[in-house]
Amino acid sequence: MRKERTLFIMGFWVALLPFLGFPNNWRKILFIITGLLLIYLSYLFYLETKRRIKKTREDTENFVDNIGSSE
After folding, report:
1. For residues 31 and 41, what is the distance between their CA atoms, to the nearest angstrom?
2. Each residue of 4-52: pLDDT tens digit?
3. Helices and strands of the chain, counted as H and E runs
């Protein structure tokens, strides 16, 4: 839940940043830093999703033995 909250706050930050009155150079730097943080956060979400899918596949895979079939 921590990453979701961080993403929510960063969304507010990006929406409010143009109206806060920072000089143009500062605003560019802050947008770049925010973008890099968003990239990092999305990468963490990707890793978490990949780990969850792998765990789900491992839990649902069953071995079925066909010995003794009537064919």
Report:
1. 15
2. 888 888 889 899 988 999 899 999 999 999 999 999 988 988 898 888 8
3. 2, 0
